[in-house]
Amino acid sequence: MNYPELLEGIRQEIAGRFAVAANADLVYHNLSHTESVVRHASELAVHYKLNDQDFFVVMAAAWFHDIGYLTNVGEHELQSAADAKAYLQRLSVPVGTIEAIEQCILATRIPQRPETLVEQILCDADLFHLGTEDFKERNRVMRKEAQLCTAQTIDKDKWREKTIALLRSHRYHTDYARQKLEAGKARNLKRLEARAEKLAETAGKAALAPAPEIQAAEPNKKSKSDRPERGIETMFRISSGNHQRLSDMADNKAHIMISTTSIILSIVISILLRKIEDEPQMIIPTLLLLLVCVTTMVFSILATRPSLPRGVFSHEDIEQKKVNLLFFGNFYRMSLDDYSMGMHKMMDSKDFLYGSLIRDVYSQGVVLGHKYRYLRVAYNVFMFGIVAAVLAFIIAAFADY
Predict the structure, then answer these.
(1) Is the pTM of this model over 0.85?
(2) Could you tell me which of 291, 301, 303, 307 has the C-alpha nearest to residue 373?
(3) Contact 26, 145 (CB under 8 A)
(4) Class of the CATH-defined domain 1-125
(5) Hey, where are the domains in the chain?
(6) What is the rounded radius of gyration, in angstroms, for the C-alpha atoms of the chain?
């Protein structure tokens, strides 16, 4: 089997699913986390010099291991394994390979109990961050996701206790991961334990101290209600990221059509047109094929052709909060001082800031609508046109007899 081609198809499939069915609550278990696990799984697989089949098993399992979060957060491993099985069966992947991928995914359930080397590699890749410097930030994001998914506030101290318990009980399964990550994991555990001890001492001292006087809030300090909410920021970030990925997918589809039609055009011009004098009955099918390819190419180019606004804004636009300063097309002809002035006014106003974010997401959606509308026309023309051209060639060929 062509494993590299299969893995590229799986990568596109997973990226597409995360883009189309994105869940704003999944601020940790998203495409970024999946790509990170894939990188670490590849690092481990290369170190252990896995054969082509085992490498495919590990990488496919890494891509699919958290896709279940999109539809079944509670039993995401089972859902991920089922999704992987359904997808790979459509590609006629051998049953034994599919079963190995399923077992890899299921092995990531906590507590992890991998049996084979490929399962150990995926388990270590999934919890690779426990021994890295970005553990603190990832742990914070995981707590945030847990709160969003359960719609409940999770106390920091309780979360810290659970994290400490996880770090104490966890062991990396491969020698490579142990040598590279155990020391870092020990440092992360030590920091958490030191923080817990410090808070416990502070709480004990606070219980003995007199109650502090209540002070009025300083007028210059912003209240919590005036600060941007993280949930809203996450929503905008995910929406913008999804739109960008969909735009990239549209551009890739357009490039495929442009490349395909270019190849057909070169063949038609270099071969078929030379034979028209000898085969006059081929004129109509050849012209039909040329028309289909040119039309498809035109709509594909329209889907990717950039358009730019005039690139300037006025002080009235800033005062009325009508301009989106987050899109370069609205300011690329302005001076740095004017742009800086507008950005500071936007950052000082919550309504202006959120209004700009809304306009930015809306503008991305409008552009996507144009791209996919042109792409749909291009694909329809190509699909029906190719069928008509082939039929025309068949009729012309039989007309000779």
Answers:
(1) no
(2) 303
(3) yes
(4) mainly alpha
(5) 1-125, 127-201, 228-398
(6) 29
